[in-house]
Amino acid sequence: MLKTSNHTSSPPVAVQGPCGPVRLKWHKLRTNLSEAPFKRSNLALGWQLGASLEVDILATADGRFAVLHDPTLGPSTTGHGRVPRTPIAAMRGLFHRDAAGTPDPDAPVLSLADLIAPLRTRRRAPSANLQLDLKLLEGYSLPDSAIADAAAAVAGLEDAIVVGSHHLNDARRLVAAIPGARLGYDPMLAVSRQPGLRDPEQLLRHLERRGAGVSLAYLRFDAIVAAEKQGFPLVARLLDLGIETDAWTVNPGRDMNDAILRTLVEAKVRQITTDVSSAIFGLVRAL
């Protein structure tokens, strides 16, 4: 079962909203905005608590996957250079930086295989899952060796894996190599390139045409709010297709208020991506 209690000694993994439980996915494994991404301790904690966890992966020069968000190593890490031109061995000894720019020894730059390896000896809560957010750069194709690297990295943990990406065809290739993994699709890159998809009904048709095997749709939170304001129940229509919606990225601030949060949970989003799960937990509980 998902943990939805008021217990505050550890970061929450879900919250009971007006329309049922909503998972709180730890964006880049973060539990607060000030910390570095991809901390090993947060991965271990979330695995034990039953969290939905997210790491970004990029293919390196030697056909491996590194856990990185940006196409360049600097300034978000202590390294320099473009990831697709750098072999994984050259990243050894690098660290991700926190919000103040300080390198975090708990957040080394690692291959996907090295980050995940300790999970095999740790207790996993039944609801724990790990989303591999597949990043691809323009002009770079995903090599077969990277697909094989990811499959080997998650061997034995396949049923906990979700592969999500803007790039659906490559995500399908990765899921095909990881039997038991689930497939997620983020259409927001397509929306930025095809203005017509800003119409929620057209976006639904886009997702419907590409929906075979997709279990999660990753939608920017303002796109969900815009659809609801237009009277089009995009999230509910996706549920009718068997596709749950993850609203990203939802953090407290000037762009977030109670009305927006209420719209998201009443639209029946099943997951919220956030860097501060405790804060979103409290805000949703207070609705």
From TrEMBL:
It comes from the Bacteria. This is Glycerophosphoryl diester phosphodiesterase. SUPFAM superfamilies: PLC-like phosphodiesterases (SSF51695). Residues 53-276 form the GP-PDE domain. GO terms for biological process: lipid metabolic process. GO terms for molecular function: phosphoric diester hydrolase activity. Transmembrane segments: none annotated.
